[in-house]
Design a protein that fits this description.
The chain is an alpha/beta fold and about 325 residues long. The protein has eleven helices and twelve strands. The strands form three sheets. Strands 1, 2, 3, 4, 5 and 6 form a six-stranded parallel beta sheet that branches. Strands 9-10-11-12 form a four-stranded antiparallel beta sheet, with helices on one face. Strands 7-8 form a two-stranded antiparallel ribbon. α3 links the parallel β3 and β4. The protein binds flavin mononucleotide.
């Protein structure tokens, strides 16, 4: 009797142990499964490099705006993401971040842009003229321009569209389809615009763009200005206190800062766009007043690989100096 009781007790204990172990194992499995689900992203994260292109219309009485809307529909129906943008709501300081820009621009009185494009146009002109900005500012940007005007205005015909194309190129932009001039009076504006638009879409879709970019980049990037070390230097940009405070100069501050970089009437020496451009060229920005870059010949001389003509021809040891550019246009050697 006693033996039977002992056997029953042992069996019950063993069963309880098994059940406990089974429960523990199941709980662990469930926990691991739950954790693995939490860690696994539910869907692939979107590609951070894809930024919609910008389609600007510069228009007084609506012709360019209507054409831009047509093109926008065409682009979207071809799975080419673009934002239709009125430049008067756009901050040109952001332009160096754009990779695709299309501009439909009308010319208005005395060859000037319609009012919604004046700021963008002036900003580009000033950037082209500003020696600190340089021709690499828009090197990531592929663009195309269509001009709307009337031949009856003679030399002023499509002056604005032409100027946009020229200025974008001067800042390093890569023109993917040649500039096209539409004539509202004697030309076949709609047909010409249709043909040009198809070409833009084709280039964007087929990737012909890549070949063009590769070719054009060679023109714009002067390798003598760069070497391997400078690319690394770009990463270690000095941070300005103004930027830490988040006070970069923007169009929305226009009450105080004008398009030519004046703040409360005083010249601002390094605007964000100048900073970006100089950094691309390998300069280190000092505070908000100066930029420094070591000439590649200086590095070459210090490494014993030969220096520039000043040393070879005249024996001047310029590699012993650092050249500074002060933004108030004074050069210090
Ligand atoms: C007052 C006025 C001035 C114009 N000046 C020029 C000009 O200098 N050059 C040009 O090519 N077209 C000129 N045009 C023609 C315009 O570009 C044309 O009317 C165009 O369709 C206007 O485009 P929008 O409707 O997008 O503003 C002028 C038109 C007007 C009404």
């Amino acid at each position: 009797m006693s033996s039977t009781t002992t056997t029953t007790t042992t069996t019950t204990t063993s069963l309880t142990t098994h059940l406990t172990l089974l429960t523990l194992l199941s709980a662990t499995t469930l926990y691991c499964f739950y954790k693995s689900r939490r860690l696994k992203p539910s869907s692939p994260s979107p590609n951070p490099t894809t930024r919609p292109g910008k389609l600007f219309f510069i228009s007084q009485t609506g012709t360019s705006k209507a054409l831009a809307k047509h093109l926008h529909n065409l682009l979207i129906s071809n799975n080419l993401p673009f934002d239709l943008v009125d430049p008067k709501t756009y901050e040109p300081e952001d332009l160096h971040n754009e990779t695709l820009v299309i501009i439909i621009a009308s010319t208005y009185e005395n060859g000037n842009p319609p009012s919604n494009g004046v700021f963008l146009s002036d900003w580009l002109s000033e950037s082209v003229e500003d020696f600190r900005v340089g021709s690499l500012l828009l090197s990531k940007c592929k663009f195309a321009v269509f001009g709307v005007g009337s031949r009856s205005y003679g030399d002023m015909f499509n002056k604005v569209g032409k100027a946009f194309s020229t200025k974008m190129r001067a800042l390093g932009g890569v023109e993917i389809v040649p500039f096209c001039e539409g004539d509202v009076d004697e030309g076949e504006l709609d047909r010409e615009f249709g043909v040009w638009s198809e070409k833009v879409v084709r280039v964007l879709k087929t990737g012909e763009i890549n070949e063009l970019v590769a070719e054009n980049c060679e023109e714009f990037i002067d390798e003598s200005d760069y070497d391997e070390d400078e690319e690394e230097e770009v990463e270690t940009e000095i941070v300005d206190l103004e930027d830490i405070a988040g006070k970069s100069l923007k169009k929305k501050d226009m009450g105080m800062v004008t398009s030519n970089g004046k703040k409360n009437g005083e010249k601002v020496m390094v605007t964000p766009v100048i900073r970006a451009s100089l950094t691309k060229q390998g300069y280190k920005i000092i505070g908000s007043h100066s930029g420094v870059k070591i000439c590649r010949w200086t590095k070459s001389q210090l490494r014993g690989r030969g220096g520039c003509y000043k040393h070879s021809f005249y024996g001047i040891e310029s590699h012993r100096f650092v050249i500074c550019i002060s933004f108030n246009n004074v050069f210090l050697v």
